[in-house]
Amino acid sequence: MNIQENISLKSFNTFGIDQKARFFSSAKTLEDLKAALTWAKSQNLEVLVLGGGSNILLTKDFPGLVLKVELKGIQVVSESEEEILVQVGAGEIWHEWVMYSISKGWAGLENLSLIPGTVGASPMQNIGAYGVEIQEVFQSLQALERNSLEIHSFDSKACKFGYRESVFKHELKDRYIITSVTFKLNKTPKFHIEYGAIKETLAEKGIQELSIKAVSEAVIQIRESKLPDPKKIGNAGSFFKNPTIPIAQYEKLKIQFPEIPGYPNEEGIKVPAGWLIEKAGWKGVRLGDIGVHEKQALVLVNYGNGIGKEIMDLSEKIQKSILEKFGIALNPEVNFI
């Protein structure tokens, strides 16, 4: 176990925020994880678990131990004629795992191409895009309980998945470290191309015969056209969740804003947060070194030397603005540290 002191976290978060960790360690094995947690406990230190750093906003230096999870490995657990179960280490890069699954002809993850972050973070957030969410391809996960250092298994029900939600963001927050995720993928594809511009993009590319590779390439093309590359402009992808409002409230807003988009779900009507932010005049707004992206209002950006507190303040101004204009409360998808 290698413990480093006073380490800049700039290269470990996609916003590119330059805050420091008092102590830093990376865990490549389960033993590394246990040793680091034991050491932190002996020093009475708070622990921040880091994956790809693609869903956090650092607003200050971290006074404890930042523990980067780098557990790797992809292993077929079982397979039938129709399905295959694959266990993947929490430290694997999400997009690389998606590309690997596509190269093997395993279907189910193609709509989730180019999402930043690691495999371990995917069930925590119940990540989703273009009509597909993790819970649809999820079988189980293994996680290390921080106090007992015991490994526990969680099935889909135990994870309590919701829209960008899981039990690990609420009741079990900061109690477990996910070490691996097992996915249930299909050998025969079930295509989801109705959402977003996938169908149009496939047509533009002249795709005659659907394949998971073609869908993945279409998703990548769409994401690259709308979302800034974190290596060039600091960002954490979608900053806010898409809010769901009661049908009655949506109908009322429809009178005032006839063009307001809405998508029915079990709780009511989901309204795109990006549309609300753009309609409120925030798209492309720049305040010094931070701002709202010019192509996608849902993305807050760091143009270079912005600090987390500035981005947090901007997000609060946007929330206040949306509440005043539409009566809708926006909730961040990004975790503030």
TrEMBL record:
Q: Specify whether Disulfide bond is a keyword of the entry.
A: no
- Subcellular location, in the record's words? Cytoplasm
Active site, renumbered: R164, S238 (proton donor), E333
Q: Do you know which InterPro entries this protein is assigned to?
A: FAD-bd_PCMH, FAD-bd_PCMH-like_sf, FAD-bd_PCMH_sub1, FAD-bd_PCMH_sub2, MurB, MurB_C, MurB_C_sf, Oxid_FAD_bind_N
User: Which pathway does the UniProt entry assign to this protein?
Assistant: Cell wall biogenesis; peptidoglycan biosynthesis
Q: Can you list the GO cellular component terms from the UniProt entry?
A: cytosol
Give start and end of each FAD-binding PCMH-type domain.
16-188
What Gene3D superfamilies would the database entry show? 3.30.465.10, UDP-N-acetylenolpyruvoylglucosamine reductase, C-terminal domain (3.90.78.10), Uridine Diphospho-n-acetylenolpyruvylglucosamine Reductase, domain 2 (3.30.43.10)
Question: Which keywords has UniProt assigned to this entry?
Answer: Cell cycle, Cell division, Cell shape, Cell wall biogenesis/degradation, Cytoplasm, FAD, Flavoprotein, NADP, Oxidoreductase, Peptidoglycan synthesis
Catalytic activity line of the entry: UDP-N-acetyl-alpha-D-muramate + NADP(+) = UDP-N-acetyl-3-O-(1-carboxyvinyl)-alpha-D-glucosamine + NADPH + H(+)
What the protein does comes down to: Cell wall formation.
Q: What is this protein called?
A: UDP-N-acetylenolpyruvoylglucosamine reductase
The lineage is: Bacteria, Pseudomonadati, Bacteroidota, Cytophagia, Cytophagales
**Gene of origin?**
murB
